[in-house]
Amino acid sequence: MRRPTWILFDLNGTLTDPGPLGAPWDRPDLGLRILGDAVRGGMTDALTGGVRPFADHLRAALAVVAAQEGLDPAGIHEATEHARALPAWPDALRALETLRRGGFRLAVLTNSGARAGRATLLSAGLLDLFDAVLGVDAVGTFKPDRRTYDHAVAELGCSPGEVLLVAAHAWDVAGAHAAGLRTAWVARGEVVRLETTPTPERVGTDLREIAAGLLAL
Q1: 3-state secondary structure of 139
Q2: Cα–Cα distance measured from residue 35 to residue 46, given in angstroms and rounded to the nearest whole number
Q3: CB atoms within 10 A of CB 178
Q4: Which class would CATH give 6-16+86-215?
Q5: Which residues are CB-contacts of 5 (< 8 A; sequence separation ≥ 6)?
Q6: pTM
Q7: Helix, strand and coil in the chain, % to nearest 5
Q8: Is 109 helix (H, G, I), strand (E, B) or coil?
Q9: CATH 3.40.50.1000, the chain: domain bounds
Q10: What is the DSSP letter of 200?
Q11: Is residue 73 within 8 Å of residue 63, measured between CB atoms?
């Protein structure tokens, strides 16, 4: 199988750990849930023509989860500050370095927007490893709208088949697949891949396993 030219990463939940979203309440276990609710808000916008920034969906998700869990709403502001500087997952740095040494070009496509994505990657110590940081704000919708992946391919200057998306979200894998990209899925919080998701080219428990599989191509 031919190697892809570009490895395109999702950011939130794939490269970075959303656990700190629950830090104001000492509930890191809520991070993935909050992120998932925010993503669903973005998906609703994508389907209904909304144009709110992802930060609005995140604040809304924080308010809902805080209310559902009986948590002090005063923590919501602190949580949004944590969202600006989510830490990298422990496996991310080494996996990215391995892929770069292996000759791959690396990019990010994030629902957070390009500017916020660069800030997060800088805070996480990963920014210098990427050749491009792309945001859905350039398109005015959210993943998994096909236009977001088409935008990424156009910006990278290649064909869809030359790009492989790595994500910890089944919905992101499905969206990229529909746009003609190759895909890889990382277990992370989902643990088990949704059976209705198109089969990814690579599956791994972490990014190091994904990187090893890509290097073997």
Answers
A1: coil
A2: 16
A3: 13
A4: alpha beta
A5: 104, 105, 158, 162, 163
A6: 0.96
A7: 55, 15, 35
A8: strand
A9: 6-16+86-215
A10: P
A11: yes
